[in-house]
Structure formats: structure tokens, C-alpha cells
User: Fold this.
Amino acid sequence: MVDPIGLAIALLGAVVAAVPAGIGSAIGIGMTAQVASGVLAEDPKKFGNLFILVVLPGTQGFYGFLGAFLAIMKLGLLGGSVEPITLWQGVQMFAACLPVGLAGLASGIWQGRVCASGAELVAKRTAEGTKAVIFAAMVETYAVLGLLVTIFAQMGIKLGG
Assistant:
């Protein structure tokens, strides 16, 4: 039997996976794009070096979407038949979605700051752009870990009769 409150809490978990991670990505991309646009105003040939730095903070939004999608899939909402879920299972799903949402929010913003600094580095020393990407990838690690915790936690939730 589907507890409507449990299902609502589980769906709220999917929202908590996607929305904060998306916000973190939007802020991170925005910060980096502002700096990159200033660099491009001076030297449009640096677009290729700056592009990866601008898009890199966007991955957190994808991780959050994936965490939400997996929750919705597990609940059976895309297959037409909702899995039986209790209130407690809804709370478990909500909790399982938190790591990717929170890690995505924080790492998206911080990665944006690192990438913005990297864009400043590219402005002065174009050949050093790879180093800026490596620094940004170090922040990315924690977004990936948040996604993995969400996936493993969702796998541990037993739904159905």
C-alpha cells in the first residue's frame, strides 16, 4: 500500500537532490562566465581555454538531476505503477537524496570560485589553463562523492511488498 505522505516525502527528496545542486551549478557557472567574458573582451582567442572552466561547475546540476531521476525511477513513477511505500521509506528516500543536493550546492559554488580564478590565470598565462582545470577537478571530487552516497543509500532502501 502506498502511504501518500511517505510518497510525498520521497518526492520532496527528489526535489532536494535536484534543486540545490542546480542552484550551485548556476551560481558557479555565472561566476566563472563573468570573469571569462572579461578575459574574452581582451582576447577572444582564449575561448577554447576558458570554455571548460565555465562549464565545469555545471556538472553538479547533472549529478542532482541523476539523483532525483534515480529516486523517481525507484519509486516506479515513470513506469506507471507506484511501488508500495511507507512513511518511513519516504523519510529514507528523502535522507538518501540529501548528499547529492547539499554537496552539489556547496561544490558548485566553490568550484565556480576556483574556475573564476582559473579564468584569471588563463588571462595572464594561457598555457597554464590545464593547472586551473586540475584545481577545479579537485572540488568536483566531492560532488561525485555526494552522488555516490545518494546512489548507495537509495540502493539500500527496500520498496515493495
